[in-house]
Specification:
Helices cover about 65% and strands about 0% of the residues. It is mostly helical. The protein folds into 4 domains: about 50 residues, no CATH class; about 160 residues, no CATH class; about 80 residues, Serine Threonine Protein Phosphatase 5, Tetratricopeptide repeat; about 80 residues. The model has no long low-confidence stretch (mean pLDDT about 90).
């Protein structure tokens, strides 16, 4: 992650924390700076300075480690292949091997992280230089986390490697630079992709604090808060995730209105947090209010509509005091939702598989409720 803690004692840092005058390594105070110098920093300071300063040096180091891990994990898939960009098996400069982290088939899916990162950087710079417009700039920015050929998002260790490559590319820019700000989000998502949630949390909290200090837009703040809530969930901090998601939903209603897809997505996330804390009644009320809007605005086949109907069924048959009618309605809802998901996305799609699992449980619960007791006359 970025350097958000003191290099000597790991205390979280304010943005005004003192730095080493030569390499810009950050500390919580002068005492820690002196202790770190005596503990060995005086031997590393010159090398860090030559490497571009503490942030750049650390980003380069972490990027190299993340790329090496991704190459190692992809070794079986990439054996005997070459990069579709530079046509070499080993990168001419970094000597890194190949990765494969998307759905491309044939030879198109093999590449060096360095080649793809350079391509993303050049394409984005060209879009800005030629004033191609916001849509083109956003599409090219997505190359930092999505394959430009098959359009599938990178995942796992490959996504983490791209997160560090993106941060490495833009870390040296001013704090207010748009690319630098966006790179923090790409890195946070990449770190989360490999399950390093504590590191991702520190990154996201630092990013959110900085955006607020810089007076960023409400839209961007809401996006960052949504990411933060997801990380809280992954760390088991359910109450904190709920509070943030409630704030995000309220913010979306105010900013975008109830018909906007982002508002509906925030409502679904808020309902999921309520369900995870077994506050089924509140989740049910929220979904009863927002599901009809999703069906009207997005349509019956939209993935968000299907997720909301699935969540609604969950509130019915898992709720305390669920009646036979509740379980029957849940089963019917899941049967309808499963048919649509199977038709639209296929039987192997993760959402379809999850809905089918819940449907089996609901059917079993319904049979148990409807069958007469074995001891009955």
């Amino acid at each position: 992650m970025i350097r958000t803690t003191c290099a000597a004692c790991a205390t979280p840092l304010a943005h005004t924390a003192p730095r080493c005058g030569d390499c810009h390594t950050r500390y919580c105070g002068r005492l820690c700076q002196k202790l770190h110098w005596k503990a060995g920093h005086k031997n590393d300071c010159k090398q860090i300075k030559l490497g571009g300063g503490a942030e750049q040096y650390y980003a380069d180091k972490k990027c190299a480690e993340a790329v090496a891990l991704a190459v190692e994990k992809c070794a079986d898939d990439t054996k005997g292949q070459t990069c579709y960009i530079c046509t070499e098996s080993l990168h001419w400069k970094t000597k890194e091997g190949l990765v494969r982290g998307c759905a491309c088939r044939g030879t198109a899916g093999f590449a060096h992280v360095s080649c793809l990162a350079k391509q993303a950087k050049i394409l984005l710079a060209e879009a800005k230089e030629n004033n191609l417009g916001e849509d083109a700039i956003n599409a090219r920015w997505r190359r930092w986390h999505t394959c430009g050929l098959c359009k599938q998002s990178y995942h796992g260790v490959v996504r983490c490697a791209f997160g560090w490559a993106c941060w490495k590319t833009y870390v040296g820019r001013p704090e207010t630079d748009t690319c630098r700000l966006l790179a923090m989000t790409v890195l946070g998502n990449g770190i989360s992709a490999v399950g390093h949630y504590e590191d991702a949390l520190a990154m996201e909290e630092a990013n959110l604090s900085m955006r607020r200090r810089l007076g960023d837009s409400e839209e961007n703040i809401l996006v960052l808060q949504s990411n933060l809530a997801t990380t809280y969930d992954q760390l088991g901090r359910r109450e904190e995730a709920l509070r943030v998601r409630q704030n995000v939903y309220s913010g979306r209603l105010r900013l975008d209105g109830e018909d906007h897809q982002m508002t509906l997505n925030a409502a679904n996330n808020y309902a999921a947090s309520l369900n995870s804390l077994k506050r089924r009644g509140e989740a049910k009320s929220l979904l009863l209010k927002t599901m009809p809007v999703a069906r009207r605005v997005l349509g019956e086949n939209d993935i968000l509509t299907l997720k909301m109907r699935w969540a609604y069924a969950h509130t019915l048959y898992y709720g305390e005091g669920a009646t036979v009618d509740d379980v029957r309605e849940a089963t019917t809802t899941l049967e309808e939702t499963e048919r649509v998901a199977r038709r639209v996305f296929g039987g192997a799609y993760p959402l379809t598989v999850q809905i089918e699992s819940y449907l089996r449980k609901a059917r079993a619960a319904l049979r148990a409720r409807e069958e007469p007791s074995s001891g009955a006359p």
